[in-house]
Amino acid sequence: MTADIPLGDRLDDDDYPAYTMGRAAEMLGTTPGFLRAIGEARLITPLRSEGGHRRYSRYQLRIAARARELVDRGTPIEAACRIVILEDQLEEAQRINAEYRRAANTAPGPA
Fold it and tell me: How far apart (Å, rounded) are the C-alpha atoms in residues 73 and 1?
């Protein structure tokens, strides 16, 4: 996959697809079918190994864990995926707004 990047750097990378479907399902306490379902709902898109197997990153596992929490509380999987997507978009918008506010507060005033 990314043999040119040192192993230590890949292990620290939240987006590095380090986990197989079986391992990811085990870590989340769910089934591979759940991971396939949230992939079909386009919540996460796992990368594929050279052999075509799904590989998940730590970031994707956190997203999947949030969806699983909602599903465990009775939310339909499609709705859970939409909620997680909207939460992620809101968090990103809030981060960008905070950056704009910081920039506006440090910008020099009119001359």
Answer: 37
